[in-house]
Amino acid sequence: MVAQTELSDDRIDRVFHALATATRRDILRRTLEREQSISALAADYDMSFAAVQKHIAVLEAAELVVKRAEGRERLVRADPAMIARARALLAQYEDLWRARIDRLDALLAEPEPEN
């Protein structure tokens, strides 16, 4: 079993749900590069401003981005700490599967018993 030291199942579900859509992954990538306004983000997608806001709301609920007000603009930036937590969780899964494969390799390497 994978130890979930930092994230509850609900938080993990929100993170991977947020990352399940290409548009949200692109918004996350863009906001990792630099903080951007929602308007600037929305300008690059073939969807309504409201649809982009909904994508950002999903990312924000997953704590992958942080939104703040600056005057009339709403600025969005990625939260590298949550991304690091998600990466650590995936690394735990990778370790689990590598250990299973190593055990399988060891079993297959054992000599066959002679009859």
UniProtKB/TrEMBL annotation:
Q: Which SMART domains match?
A: HTH_ARSR
What InterPro entries does the annotation carry? ArsR-like_HTH (IPR011991), HTH_ArsR_DNA-bd_dom (IPR001845), WH-like_DNA-bd_sf (IPR036388), WH_DNA-bd_sf (IPR036390)
Report the PROSITE patterns cross-referenced here. HTH_ARSR_2
Cite the HTH arsR-type domain residue spans from the record.
4-98
Query: What's a single GO MF annotation on this record?
Result: DNA-binding transcription factor activity
Q: Which domain of life does this protein belong to?
A: Bacteria
Q: Which residues form a coiled coil?
A: none
Gene3D superfamilies in UniProt? Winged helix-like DNA-binding domain superfamily/Winged helix DNA-binding domain (1.10.10.10)
Q: Known PANTHER family for this protein?
A: SLL0088 PROTEIN (PTHR38600:SF2), TRANSCRIPTIONAL REGULATORY PROTEIN (PTHR38600)
What is this protein's name?
A: ArsR family transcriptional regulator
Q: What is the lineage of its organism?
A: Bacteria, Bacillati, Actinomycetota, Actinomycetes, Micrococcales
